[in-house]
Design a protein that fits this description.
271 residues; Diaminopimelate Epimerase, Chain A, domain 1; 4 helices; globular; 17% helix; 17-stranded mixed beta sheet; alpha+beta; 2 domains
Length: 271
């Protein structure tokens, strides 16, 4: 971790559909970020602000290892949009069109999808209660919660509600209650989704440890899996979020997510 708080700390600011990240490269320095630093940088008034912070480190057998911090200082094993953003950055740096990325979720694969888009394979979804995890054994397709949501794990837990109109739900009031529901011992990401047309969903997201976000990659993957399991869509869907559109394809080798990325600016933290 940082031993001298006065040492300038370079970072990148990125976003995927408005889901924004601070990215810190620890490959040459070793670990720099702890919970207190993540919370300080996350402050949108006195810091930089982010939905998640990601650090880059070295790991044998991969192009890069990623660690994710939420804005409340907690960690997450997965962050799909940040993974896509960083993959695009490394592809631009190295000229590679395919990458192997390790996370606490496992090994992920990224590739250039053309037209400025980046795809990441987020791995197979976790569908069993103890994998997600839930507090006790139950059917994950319809949970014993008002609205009968579906539980899915994508390296982090998700709870997806299918509603008539996702935009009509007060997710800022609804989300925190579900995030801390006793069925989810590690808390959960919360999605409300409605069917727009064949293989087309409108979704809004309340992220565990971050709150309302304009987009979420892992939430999009979880929602696509839940919709396919419930017979609402096929396994290849378009998902419209507050910040834009992602395309998700649940294949035999995992859940692929494709969308745009943006490198907004480089900065130096002096806190």
């Amino acid at each position: 971790m940082r031993t001298d708080q006065n040492t300038p700390l370079p970072f990148m600011k990125m976003h995927g559909l408005g889901n924004d990240f601070v990215v810190i490269d620890e490959r040459d320095t070793g670990p720099l970020v702890d919970a207190a630093l993540a919370i300080a940088i996350a402050d949108r008034h006195r810091g930089v602000g982010f939905d998640q912070l990601a650090t880059l480190s070295n790991r044998a057998g991969s192009d890069v290892h990623l660690t994710f911090w939420n804005s409340d200082g907690s960690q997450s094993a997965a962050c799909g949009n940040a993974t896509r953003c960083i993959a695009r950055h490394i592809m631009d740096q190295t000229g590679k069109t395919e990458l192997t990325i390790t996370t606490d979720r496992g090994t992920l694969y990224a590739r250039d999808a053309g037209d400025g888009l980046t795809s990441v394979n987020m791995g197979q979804p976790q569908l069993l209660w103890h994998e997600i995890p839930l507090a006790r054994e139950m059917d994950t397709l319809e949970l014993p919660i008002d609205g009968a949501p579906t539980a899915t794990g994508m390296g982090n837990p998700h709870c997806t509600f299918f509603v008539e109109n996702a935009e009509a739900v007060d997710i800022c009031a609804f989300g925190p209650t579900i995030e801390h529901h006793p069925l989810y011992p590690q808390r959960t990401n919360v999605q409300v989704a409605s069917l727009v047309g064949p293989d087309h969903l409108r979704m809004r997201v309340w992220e565990r440890g971050a709150g309302l976000t304009l987009a979420s990659g892992s939430s999009s993957c979880a929602t696509a899996v839940a919709a396919a399991r419930r017979g609402l869509t096929g396994r290849k869907v378009r998902i419209d979020l507050d910040g834009g559109t992602l395309h998700v394809d649940w294949r035999e080798d995992g859940v692929w997510m494709t969308g745009p990325t943006a490198h907004v600016f480089d900065g130096v933290w002096r806190g």
